[in-house]
Specification:
The complex is a heterotrimer of chains A (about 350), B (about 325) and C (about 280). Chain B has one domain: ABC transporter involved in vitamin B12 uptake, BtuC. Chain B has about 325 residues and is mainly α. Chain B has 14 helices and two strands. By secondary structure, chain C is an alpha/beta fold. Chain C is globular. The chains are: A mainly alpha (about 350), B mainly alpha (about 325), C alpha/beta (about 280). Chains in contact: A-B, A-C, B-C.
Chain lengths: ~350, ~325, ~280
Amino acid sequence: MITKPDTRLLKAVALLLVAATAFVIASLVLGGDHAAATTVDPVVAPANTPKSQLVVQGLINGTVFGILLALAAVGLSLIYGTTGLSNFAHGEQVTFGAVLTYFLTTKSDVSLPLIPAQFNIGLPLPIAAIVAIIIAGGTGWLQDKLLWGPLRRRRIAALQQMIVSIGLSLALVNLFQWWVGGERYRLTTSIDSRLTFGDYYIGRQTLLSVVIALIALAGVAFFLLRTRLGRATRAIADNPALASASGIRVDGIIRLVWVMAAALAALGGILLALYENGLSFDQGARLLLLMFAAVTLGGLGQAFGALVGALVIGIVTEVSTVVVAPDMKYASALVILIVVLLIRPQGILGRAERVG
Amino acid sequence: MDLLIDALGESFAPATAAFAIAAIGLNFHFGLTGLLNMGQAGFMLLGMYGYAISIRNGLPIWAAILIAMGTAIVFGAILGWPTLKLKGDYLSIVTIAAAEIVRYAGRSQTFVNLTGASVGIRGNEYKGPFEDLSPFPDERITVLWWTYHGSASNSWWLRLVAWTFVGLMLLVFWRLSRSPWGRVLKGIREDEDAVRSLGKNVYWYKMQALIIGGVIGALGGVIWSLGNSVQPDSMGRATTFWIWTLLLLGGAATVFGPVVGSIVFWTALSLVKGLAKLFIPESIMPSTVIEPFALMLVGVTLMLLVIFRPQGLLGNKKELAFHA
Amino acid sequence: MPDPTIVAGIDPVPGVAKPDAILVADGVKRRFGGLTAVDVAHFEVQRNTITALIGPNGAGKSTFFNLLTGFDQAQEGTGTFDGQPLRGMPPAKVARAGMVRTFQLTKALEGMSVMENMRLGAQDQPGENFFTAFVPPLWRAREREITEQAHELLHRFKLYEKRDDSAGSLSGGQRKLLEMARALMSKPTMVMLDEPMAGVNPALTESLLDHIIELKEEGMTVLFVEHDMHMVRRISDWVAVMAQGKLIAEGPAGSVMQNEAVQDAYLGAHHDTDLGEDL
């Protein structure tokens, strides 16, 4: 979890910049034949585009992706920070937001598992998204009430809970496949118009997504740093026993964290579905490892670490396509995760742990 | 009746044996040592590639198996080196990430000449030498209620070899887990620092456990590939989670847990699918969703097992393998 | 019983050199972030004595203990054990060199039987090698020796009846005894006990104290961290006092508590600390 915004944040940003610069330089130097392969990706410029330009565009895309990923991942970090649980079902929370929004907004007929009836709700996208986020927050509350809360009371070990979350993830991803099938869907049929500056571009809708994500992240930061509840949350992350002894209602706060985590994941899922121009039952499952990578990179349980880590992951993912084939871009992000763990096991923002 | 025969047929299918072997490997990791390897499918996939690519390049079977095992040794060493000094969660995240890297690399166009990208390697490119060894006739043979080919692909020959391998791996696990070596691993599972204070090189023992379990996983992959084809997406995260489910179902840290778990898992899955097809009307559950429905039940089973019976069917409550 | 003759003639000043030191630490510093947890200029432990390491809460005793046994690494400083340099030595190697420790929070291996706990403590079992493990004839003989040694120790520590029970079923005090017995399986030259008396009921305390004295009689050296000053006074030949990471005093148990620095350190931290003296 976060402590006072001391020099560690500065150091982390510096480290991030150094890493990004090194990566960009490496890409420029090494970026040989693969530039041609990137034409497979429809949004990437033609093959004769200079590498430097691809790198800068990759930086733009990567920052966007990183911010959206941070939004989806911040809940994972909050939950780890307050309960010690590595929640493998967090990806399904992300999927749930996107799938539910699709369910509420699409003009096609949709149905629910086990209910032999067709619906056609067709709400406007913003309203569908808000309803979906509220319902998703409710699932966070329900999950903690029915599953995680009782497990904590039974003092089930964190690792055991982690495997429970794997089971939940397996159950949910298949439930979603049952629900919406294996196809890819789009949340909106409109085509995103591009804002161009010179050689570079960003979609208007994407820009709006980024603004929404940044506002949400700023909200989380404000909550954690400036509100009484937020400070209580950080206190629990630092030392649950002490927090409990000093009169903080640990269980209530953790339930709130679950609601927040689920709602933020849903919002992240919706924005990512817009950004990637599609959603499917395994959207979150595919992102889960990137989210874990972001959170681990930033330092497990450090809320702001998730942001820093997600930016690193986002930029690496997008810029790496200059050097490696696009179908390897997630792999390069995971390689970076392993490399960083080698150099700095506690993550970029994490504290070295005291032994014994 | 056909349903029951099909389900019972699953109980000794090659895939059941392959998963039992992979789970024996995971039993070295988790059952004995307490390591949270979430990338067992990656070890299997490496074994599959190692074997299939070697055979395709004209190597003999024994060399292909050695290469499959060697790949797993290298992979385990690379994985273990940074992570075995860190907390358990890190190992789980790094192993799952590494297994996915293997899968992404396998399905990437970059290595299409080696791995066949997302299409994979077709069975007829590497199964030949193994099937040529079959002493059984080249025709379909019926034993009791089951009819399979004598030698080709999903055959009686493969069943014989696969279950012999299962027996062999059980013997290896039984011998090692009851040796002083296994005692050190169990100690590490209970408390690393205590074992360190007794003069054992904990890091090195964890490395050995990770590698031996991974090598056994790779052998499971080889067996699996001989009944199917080499296809990277068949060895995704879900596969690892199934292996975990069936290990916990049978009972971690027990000798026969992985085998019992695998048999019960695959038989039950086949039964559930068959029953759902028979008894649930198409209007409520179309046949296309029976697969996700059954796999959803796998997830629920894993949750219930871990919460209510973490020792599984055969395990001993006192030797619970979960330690924070 | 404390034996004043062993330490006679040693000046009771912090960092004093001992005539036959088995353990020497020099310039050891350990910082966590901005906090310096341990800053010991010089410290020696005399061979075949019982030395107590005491000090108020947060004095850095446990951290110093971890540094000496290799469980934590100091940023600065050197040390030797029986002539071997300790710097950078991993904990397992420290143990194999003959310095075995126990833990403040007992680390009995709860899922294993008492007997298996004991066997794990032994050194030089060839069956602990992966390849040898496959061939029992290569390790059965050594296993029998180990088992015999374990039986003896279990008799001595009155745990023989419990040998087949799981260690998790033992009481807190019995676990402490098991941990100590297990440490002795490796035939160490020096035993490091981290709060051996914590959480042990009074009946067992007596036998624990006797066991510690026996260790010395068998020629071992004991260094232990303890809070209970009554226990310290009863068994230690020599007492070293830490406060705020520094070694502030050393001397025979009887006199060290009269030291002004010690009284300040204790009274400054806890006015109600029982110094184990009949004031």
